[in-house]
Amino acid sequence: MSDHFVDVNKTITIKAKDLAAEITSFNTKKDGLHGESAITGEHVKNNKDVRELLGKSGIKPEALPPEEDIKKLQRRINSENKRIAKDTKKIKSES
Fold it and tell me: pTM score, two decimals?
């Protein structure tokens, strides 16, 4: 998964994927699942179940608008911090 995808995707989508993975981990231990096929099947089922729950709540992950890219946000904050520092120096030199 690319960093950009994680940066711009909604937190709810990330948490949903995390929940599905945790359910898979729990059920794998609880039910003694072994082998790629069994664990993959469990994981697919859990992702489907979580997605269905999101749908019941009116949340469609692919329809969510992207959040502001973290890297862009960081650049904007850095730029604003530089402007504030420059303005502060200007004010101090004028006093």
Answer: 0.61
